[in-house]
Design a protein that fits this description.
The structure is a homodimer. By secondary structure, chain A is of the alpha/beta class. Chain A is 42% helix and 16% strand. The first copy, chain A, contains nine helices and eight strands. Chain A has an eight-stranded parallel β-barrel, surrounded by seven helices. Chain A is globular, with a radius of gyration of 16 Å. The interface between A and B is medium-sized, with 19 and 19 residues.
Chain lengths: 216, 216
């Protein structure tokens, strides 16, 4: 996976979509500049999860934006997604890699500096530093990294890296300035009045910082 | 899978094991005559589910008793279980078969007479008629089949068939007399004061009815 694919990473949450259809929100977000999509659904049964994954995959076809599935390798295999995102309490990385093969994307959440370092021993495609700031979206997280923690994580990690947790138009630029290759957002896009405009704005902020890094 | 493998089918529920270690309960049950084990855990995260599956698989090694995983094809693949048991809201059978290959066991819950008939179009290894009687173990079920429904299901199905729901020493014999190839039990073994004796007693009741059928 190219590092640029992490730039603006949309993580779904149907419950935050203001009653809107998830495929519609995702397509507007992709039009606005989202570079990676993760389907995260903790409350769906397996059959519904697969059906939604298939619809999202069809919606993303031809966009060049990869679709990852949160946690569930069975769902990823069932819909032939581009990969999975796993947390520390999900399937161990080595098993996920064996089941998915060498070509699928596997991202890993890291919630402590120790986990950032441990991930260097794994051939993951990226790490998501979680959370940069605490949020209401995900409540089972450890102490937030903050910008300074994100900067340290960047220095310690050999992997492409994004920040997640409290990432929005007010924080995304600073997160990238701390060395992140991108930011993962949930409500900043999913709950935005206009997911297209929200994504476009975020993408512009992120690209601006990435440009500075390239030039500076 | 041989039809005899369905005779006494143990479905786990850690919450009902009276605080005892699940591996210990399962091993006692196997010693008592259990012929098939399904690990059903709805509240574990994926990593814990896999770890428990690996422990159970190691415990069952050499026993000849297959280990199935409820719903989660990823967990089944991760631990190289002998198969899965899927319900009507789990992964569709055709996808599960594709992911698991032709040699793994796939069992399917059927909750209505229509589903019994629909399952005849699928190459499943067995169907579990659910529930024969309503229970506290599983509350998301439809109207119970009762003995008469079990008998009709047997007549309609081309598959090996077991009953589940309210199966215990008082009901197992009659269920087999209705044509079931076996019964699946949860609390009758998992919550028994002595899982070995409870299994031995159930197995004897079931074998007695199966013998009658063979001879009669």
């Amino acid at each position: 996976m190219k590092r640029e694919t992490l730039a603006l990473y949309l993580v779904t949450d149907r419950g935050l979509a203001l009653g809107r259809d998830l495929e519609t929100v995702v397509l507007q977000a992709v039009k606005g500049g989202v570079t990676l999509v993760q389907l995260r659904e903790k409350d769906l049964d397996t059959r519904e999860f697969i059906a939604l994954g298939q619809r999202l995959k069809a919606a993303l076809a031809g966009s060049g934006v990869p679709l990852l599935i949160n946690d569930r390798v069975d769902v990823a295999l069932a819909v032939d997604a581009d990969g999975v995102h796993i947390g520390q309490s999900d399937m161990p990385y080595e098993i996920a890699r064996r089941l998915l093969g060498p070509d699928k994307i596997i991202g890993l959440s890291v919630e402590t500096m120790d986990e950032v370092v441990e991930a260097n021993a794994l051939d993951v495609d990226y790490v998501a530093v979680s959370p940069v700031f605490s949020t209401n979206t995900k409540t089972d997280t450890l102490a937030p990294f903050g910008y300074e923690g994100l900067r340290r994580a960047r220095a310690l990690s050999r992997h492409p890296l994004c920040g997640i947790g409290g990432m929005n138009a007010a924080t995304a630029g600073q997160a990238v300035a701390c060395g992140a290759d991108g930011v993962a957002v949930v409500s900043a896009i999913v709950s935005a009045p206009d997911p297209y405009l929200a994504s476009k704005n975020l993408k512009s902020i992120i690209d601006n910082e990435l440009d500075k890094r390239r030039l500076g």
